[in-house]
Amino acid sequence: MIEVSSASDIGRVRTSNEDSCGVFSPAVYVVADGLGGHAAGEVASRIVVAAVHDMANAGEPIDTAALKSAVLRANQQVLDAAAKNSAYEGMGSTATVLHIDEESQTACYAHVGDSRLYLLRAGALRRISRDHSYVEELVARGELSEAEAQHHPRKNYLLRAVGVEERLHVDGDTFPVMAGDRFLLATDGLTNMVEDADLCALLGGNPDDAARQMVERALDAGGTDNVTAIVIACDPS
Fold first, then answer.
1. Is 200 within 8 Å of 125 (Cβ atoms)?
2. What values do phi and psi take at 201, rounded to 5?
3. CB 104: neighbour CB atoms within 10 A?
4. pLDDT by residue for the chain (237 residues), tens digit each?
């Protein structure tokens, strides 16, 4: 049995919410964080969510390739929209998409940018996605620690995002799901404000209210960005 909660908030500083999210049947989830200013970022993130919605509703088998294709379609749609409207020039979005197949007990995901996908299993929180950011590259090369990365001045400089280039590489994979697994999809407005230990505790709590509690925790910490979370609990029926 899958239980889901989601929440999104403009935050305490921004004047618009450029985050978008979606929960679609059959068990498809997406968060997108728009880039490029007041109107443009919101447009780009909505394009991502709409592309994932169309993929989920197409009635075709859903696997990693299908999720990646939806993100690539969104990439082209964002580029096309920017080419037709100068106000949208430079817009883009992150994209983190998850599908859970209860019958096969597997999950697949597609990911671009620095929104994140986490898995909580047996009390241990693990990040599934990898940030496509300048700072993450420094961490991967051993030039920066995780703690230093958290406060680096170029933390939000992305190397890969939807709508930036024609040729986009989308990360993705498939992995088994176990009873009791909890998933979190979140924009960086949450993960920059709330420590992993707190996310772990909230993710392990009541799934009906977990997403809202996470967003409120980010707001209490300052809410310097838009905040979005989707929590999925694969609990035994």
1. yes
2. -65, -45
3. 10
4. 899 999 999 999 999 999 999 999 999 999 999 998 667 999 999 999 999 999 999 999 999 999 999 999 999 999 999 999 999 999 999 999 999 999 999 999 999 999 999 999 999 999 999 999 888 788 778 777 777 777 776 767 799 999 999 999 999 999 999 999 999 999 999 999 999 999 999 999 999 999 999 999 999 999 999 999 999 999 865
Report how far residue 1's alpha carbon sits from residue 215's, in angstroms, rounded to the nearest whole number: 24
What is the DSSP secondary-structure string of 160-212?
--BTS-SS---EEEEEE--TTEEEEEE-HHHHTTS-HHHHHHHHTS-HHHHHH
Closest by alpha carbon to 235, among 217, 210, 216, 212?
210
Judged by DSSP in three states, 159 sits in coil
Residue 195, amino acid:
E
CA-based nearest residue to 227, from 12, 4, 5, 3: 12
Backbone φ, ψ for residue 54 (5° rounding): -65, -40
Residue 170 CB partners (closer than 8 Å, separation 6+): 68, 71, 72, 95, 110, 111, 112
For 7, the 3-state DSSP assignment is: strand
Give counts: helices (H), strands (E), the chain. 7, 11
E strands, the chain, are 2-9, 19-24, 28-35, 92-93, 95-101, 106-112, 116-121, 124-127, 171-176, 181-186, 227-234
Omega of the bond prior to 153 within 30 degrees of 0, cis? no
Classify 122 in phi/psi space as left (phi over 0), alpha (psi -120 to 50) or beta: left
